[in-house]
Design brief:
By secondary structure, the chain is of the alpha/beta class. The chain has helices at about 5-15, 15-30, 35-50, 50-65, 75-90, 115-130, 145-160, 170-185, 200-220, 235-250, 265-275, 295-305, and strands spanning about 105-110, 135-140, 160-165, 190-195, 225-230, 255, 280-285, 290-295. It contains 12 helices and 8 strands. It binds guanosine-5'-triphosphate. It is a peripheral membrane protein.
Amino acid sequence: MSETSWKDRLFGGFRKTSERLSENLTSVVSTAKLDDSTLDDVEDALILSDLGPSAASRIRQKLSDKKFGLSMTETELKEAVAEEIAEILRPVAKPLEVVAFPRPQVLLVIGVNGSGKTTTIAKVAHLFQEDDYGVMLAAGDTFRAAAIGQLATWAERIGVPIIRGAEGGDPASIVFDGVKAATDQGIDALIVDTAGRLQNKRELMDELAKIRKVLGRLNPEAPHDVVLVLDATNGQNALAQIETFKEVAGVTGLIMTKLDGTARGGVLVAAAEQYGLPIHAIGVGEKIDDLRPFDPDLVARVIAGVA
Ligand SMILES: Nc1nc2c(ncn2[C@@H]2O[C@H](COP(=O)(O)OP(=O)(O)OP(=O)(O)O)[C@@H](O)[C@H]2O)c(=O)[nH]1
């Protein structure tokens, strides 16, 4: 896909978020001068746009340090806000990489049911395929037959092998089989689906601990990535999920999905500010190429309405 069309898609995806912040900032700027009261309004606009109190206050402070007393047009204010958002996002932008030696790179993908986990696994596999990496999937979410079937359908659609077991099977043994098969076949990346039963923390912890133990026997470095998939439409609740999964699963990075169709995309900035975890990619639609590496400058400009 050309960059322009991706930008259009991203902008389309973030349209609601962008409109919300844009509207909130537009109502602020009629006062023209960046004084304390305008800064208060900017801070409120950022909080209303789901960027969270911490990012909002940091952006306010930076604007105050750099621009206090200046008269600004609406566009200048939005440009300045975009730059401060980008400063928060840049340090966490980190595309997924296939660097493991020995191969395969093992990625555990976690997230609550319905977050877009399965679709995201297929999209990540597709991104890797575009870079000519050999990919294999492992259906470690054995809790529901539907989850196994759905992953298998995606595997077939994009043409990658899948290791699967029966419903109720032992996820650790599927992961074991997956790593063995991937190693034997010279696969570059093994992407493992896991059950997202956050409502039962103990079970999830035990299951992940067992997967880690089994993986460690085959490759002490694995898993190389523990990627948490978050649904942006959950807004602030997505932040609570980061908190819990960090503690339970040792999350190493995030992918945020469903940034299309929500006005709550600002939660991405809140997540970056509060947790500093790498953000690998963002999902802006249901199609296979609707996942893209996270471009902090572009996303910041889109959120602030100046892209
Ligand atoms: N609009 C939009 N929909 C998405 C995106 N990612 C996933 N979806 C949709 O969200 C729904 C749930 O996605 P799944 O991939 O099945 O989510 P899951 O977390 O594996 O959920 P379970 O299969 O229920 O465990 C599906 O209808 C997907 O098409 C996205 O970025 N944007």
